[in-house]
Write a structure and sequence with these properties.
230 residues; 7 helices; alpha/beta; methylthioadenosine nucleosidase activity; five-stranded mixed β-barrel; Hopanoid-assoc_phosphoryl_HpnG
Length: 230
């Protein structure tokens, strides 16, 4: 019988590539929340040790910058709150913190559609008190609760609270989690004023991706340590 593995839930192929290793089962949503829910239901045959939401996120806390790491203390979505595993969160926080960079604990907000502008981020921050927002963590949390599995969240700040994402961000992700460059160029041709925000978004993504890669290399070894704590 295979030992239990950790289910790693991501939104993009680039995030999934950072989280592949022994003991990990990565799933990529491709920014499709319903598709992710369906994919999770197909994991019934796996012996799972826990669930980890892993990837980039939008900043809600103005103090956070691109590349900062948020270890989820809890997850909020609509009127629901989910708690994370204190044991796994502690191991991940200490282990990732030892590799350098800013590591903080914070609430993760889950949404069904991207929050693109600073006004929307500020409103969500006021409503939830969350540090960051993404489209996968609340689905991961619901799945973990229903399966009675421990949950951990590792999210790297991509766009800070004061930064707007260009509208084309909503159509740039392919169903498998890649980037639809044809859609990007088509939207830029239609609305060239997005180019400034796109350049800033690209610079932010370089920072968050570098941090995510460093965290991903440590994810498997740290979670294997957590098995003895669960």
């Amino acid at each position: 019988m295979e030992p239990p593995r950790f289910l790693i839930i991501t939104g993009l192929l680039s995030e999934r590539a950072c989280a592949e290793g022994e003991g990990l089962v990565p799933i990529c949503s491709g920014a499709d929340t319903e598709g992710l829910r369906a994919a999770l239901e197909r994991t019934q045959g796996f012996a799972l040790a826990g669930v980890v939401s892993f990837g980039i996120a939008g900043g809600l806390d103005p103090a956070l910058r691109p590349g900062d790491v948020v270890i989820g203390s809890s997850v909020v979505a609509e009127d629901k709150r989910y708690e994370t595993s204190a044991e796994l969160s502690s191991i991940l926080s200490e282990g990732l913190g030892a590799s350098g960079g800013k590591i903080v604990a914070g609430v993760i907000a889950g949404v069904e559609a991207p929050v693109l502008d600073p006004q929307g981020k500020a409103a969500l921050r006021k409503k939830t008190g969350a540090a960051v927002v993404d489209m996968e963590t609340h689905i991961a949390a619901d799945f973990a609760e229903r399966r009675r599995l421990p949950l951990a969240v590792v999210r790297v700040v991509n766009d800070p609270a004061a930064r707007a994402l260009p509208p084309l961000a909503t159509s740039a992700v392919t169903p498998d989690g890649g980037v639809d460059f044809r859609a990007v160029f088509r939207d830029l041709a239609r609305e060239p004023r997005q180019i400034g925000d796109l350049i800033l978004a690209g610079l932010d993504f370089r920072k968050s991706s570098a941090t995510l890669g460093r965290c991903g290399r440590l994810l498997g070894p740290l979670l294997s340590l957590g098995l003895s704590e669960l």
